[in-house]
Amino acid sequence: MDDKTILSAILYFLALINPASKVFLLCSLDPRPSAAELREVAFKATGVAFAILLVIACVGSPLLKHVFHVELYSLKISGGIILFFVGLMAVQQGRFHESAQRGKPDDLSIVPLGAPLIAGPGTITAAISYSTEHGLATTVISLTVTLLLNCGIMLMAFPIGDWLKRIHATGPLVRITGLVVATVATQMFFDGLHDWHAAQGRP
Asked: What is the pTM of this model?
């Protein structure tokens, strides 16, 4: 188990999960949830996302190949396309989601926070590809650390969001993280094309 591979995977998963978008979503809740409600939402969303990604990492590749007859490169290409438009929306519109949310905070913990904002197309694609290319243990460790980091940021969402508003950095940060997401998505797309090209036996 290579420490560099794990660190690289953690940073990659963090870019895909994009903790900043969770901060913006939580800070847009009206009325703002209490500290206890925020903890419940963060823990439940993290648990749901971890369960989804763990199952996907364990059985995703054989399920795709033997049940749906889909190759991993096809998943990379389609996941990259979907993720690209998420990043593009953030760059163009300055948001990753509908900003105004009403109702109970707990309603958001599974959908959209747990899935698809945490366990989304990009993260699912990465979980399957990493478990196939680097092994299940490396993938699970990387996902666990990443989700814990993301959960910690979600728990600090209100202080972080208020500080960003004070320094007028919310809009620029959304667009910067959107650009990062779009760039990662583009690389995922080209990785899928490369794998497809190699599978055809072409030089």
From this structure: 0.90
